[in-house]
Amino acid sequence: MISMLADNKTTYPKQFYADALAGLTTYPKQLPVKYFYDAEGDRLFQQIMNCPEYYVTDCELEIFTQQTGVMADHIIRGGEPFDLIELGAGDCTKSRHLLSLLLATDTNFIYKPIDISTSTIQFLETTLPIDLPGLRLIGMNGDYFDMLAQTAGNGTRKVVLCLGANIGNMPVAEAQDFCIKLRSYLSPGDMVIIGFDLKKDPHLIRAAYDDEQGITARFNLNLLSRMNRDLGADFDLGQFKHYCIYDPASGACKSYLISLEKQRVKIGDEIIAFQKNEYIWMEISQKYDLAEVDELAVSSGFTPVKHLLDSKEWFTDAIWTVKQ
Ligand code: AVI
């Protein structure tokens, strides 16, 4: 059940309210990425993935349609059983290519998709056994690390999928903390397959996060709508404009909402003041080169094994094993 913060008249989801307020009262203002994905945010992200400029999904899908054989060669070790754990499985559009190949080769594994969304796990539990007869599946609904803690130490080898370049939505230092934490739930011999969007022509990257149809802009603005609806805020969406910049040196692609006027916005019982042209930092989509991906692996306790690249070499699914 969602925990609520009560004032005299209204209730707000407590954690969302606390996080939003903390972000909007720090300098520079920022909002946590995890709140982008309400029902409308999910719908807009689907549209982003279908935008001509947003290459990220197609690149990784190409790897999963064309290179699952190589992936499976690394995953399968004789008949040794393993848990195939997917962090943030969603509708598992990509991983189902791997699942069908593993099933076709009679591999001994249990698929354990982890997702924070209850409806996503219910959807997978209902549809996957029909789409992929013979699949052994245990859906896990909750936080990644809480769910990993439940499977850690069951004596079965682990192969963890972390796809979709989701790691790019963390600054590099946070990504390293994430990988170190992930490593702590694994044992020598376990494996991780992790997707990274790679540094490339800066124009292509910027265009992917500033599409012509303005879908990415709506995706960012939707978080303000969500705060209006769920937190009693009164953001005027017409007074904020999406701005995105890619820095080829650091690989950071950052998006902001810029306040078009000096204005005051109510959120719950608080008033947040904005200067004209002040920004809210909304999201980072960090891009890496292959050496940086390998460095991240080593610095967080993994051994880089292989890069599976799409034909344009814009994206890698990196295969790492846990250091002995
Ligand atoms: C989910 N994540 C990897 C996407 C990305 O590319 O950073 C989110 C996104 N935001 C705007 N466009 C896509």
Automatic annotation (TrEMBL):
Descriptive protein name: L-histidine N(Alpha)-methyltransferase
Lineage: Bacteria, Pseudomonadati, Bacteroidota, Sphingobacteriia, Sphingobacteriales
Species assigned in the record: Mucilaginibacter terrigena
Top-level taxon of the source organism: Bacteria
Domain Histidine-specific methyltransferase SAM-dependent: 18-320
GO MF term set: methyltransferase activity
GO biological process: methylation
Keyword entries, A-Z: Methyltransferase, Transferase
